[in-house]
Amino acid sequence: MELYLDSANLEHIRHAASLGILSGITTNPSLLAKEDPNVDIKKRILEIYDLVGGHLSVEVISTETDGMLKEADQILSWFPDATIKIPIIPAGLAAVRKLSDQGVPTNVTLIFSANQAIAAQNAGATYVSIFMGRLDDISQESSRVLEDICEIWDVQGYDSEIIAASIRTPIHLTQSALAGAHIATVPYNVLMQSLKHPLTDSGLKTFLDDYAKLQAEINKIGALTKPAEKPNLTKPAPKNNRRGASGRKPQTQAK
């Protein structure tokens, strides 16, 4: 299962990308507005793409087919590798079909049921995004819905890739992998949480403490076994006091 970051925060994207574990980024109007209501969308999208490269889903905001297609053309003019993110509504499915026929990759979003996912697949969607957290919010078991969709994909041999989205906790991430999702798109805070475990922290502290003790012991043993300096047994040369054989200083002859 590949990992995408669901974010429009440049600092978070930069840090997550530096870990070497990301395969792409997903964004939406809410994420962009959260960072800055007055954000220049084109500039921000291109900044994100420059940071990560690879997959980048950019969502349209129109609810009409023609409007979606115009927005898609605009986004593709910014960079031709964009994946166009479109909601699972009738007008959206029509737009997905037209974009698919043109070879443009699409990500159908806001999917909450197997039937919606099947419709998106038949419209030619490249990706189908299943929202887990929001299903749990209305007391539906999101992991079960995702499992059903993954099983249908296996039975039918569908080729759209399944993205587990609306990930709220590290448990959602594990459930996505177990269900068979191809991709999980994860908020930054959940991604960071998923990398941590208290036993990892305590284990690392133990290793470092033990290493410090070992080094101290090695230094102590080294100090005890260091060879003592040998005394200098060489007799010092006699001082030249300019005395003759008689022991008297030679007399200077008067000129």
Plain-language structure description:
With 255 residues, the protein is of the alpha/beta class. The chain has one domain: Alpha-Beta Barrel (TIM Barrel). Helices cover 50% and strands 15% of the residues. It has 11 helices and 8 strands. It has helices at residues 10-18, 29-35, 41-52, 65-78, 90-101, 114-122, 132-137, 142-156, 170-179, 188-194, 198-224; strands spanning 2-6, 24-26, 55-59, 83-87, 106-111, 127-131, 161-165, 183-186. An 8-stranded parallel beta barrel has the order 1-2-3-4-5-6-7-8, surrounded by 7 helices. Helix 6 links the parallel strand 5 and strand 6 (127-131). Helix 1 (10-18) packs parallel to helix 3 and helix 8 (142-156) runs parallel beside helix 9. The longest helix is centred in the C-terminal third of the chain and has 27 residues, at 198-224. The radius of gyration is 36 Å and the shape is elongated. It starts with a strand and ends in a 31-residue tail after the last helix. The model has no long low-confidence stretch (mean pLDDT 90).
